[in-house]
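Page 42, continued from yesterday. The earlier attempt failed because a stray header line got pasted into the input along with the sequence. Redoing it now with the clean sequence only.
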Amino acid sequence: VGAASPRTLAALQAPRRLVRRYGTEAPYVHALGLSDPRLGEPVLDGHPVTRAELVWAVRHEGALDEADLLDRRTRVGLIPADRAAALDAAREALGEVLGSR
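This time it went through. Structure tokens are written below.
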């Protein structure tokens, strides 16, 4: 999912950072962040990962817990202080998606 030719990826209407990470799915992740201003916010100051990326990981990639979101999907959790700062955002993303099932 998300793989495409360099030409196709270059034509996508999404931030390059998202295209590098999500490929052809990047416009959908970006749109999720635009649909709700809160989801467009970074999970912590000085880090590019947004709340939309956390929600996307739960909804479309099967992330099930904080460790999956912060350590494996986004790598935010690899720095202990960043992990602690982003933990509430991860919990909110999980609660928003999994709590509604």
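Notes: The two ends are 24 Å apart (CA to CA).
Reminder to self: strip header lines before submitting.
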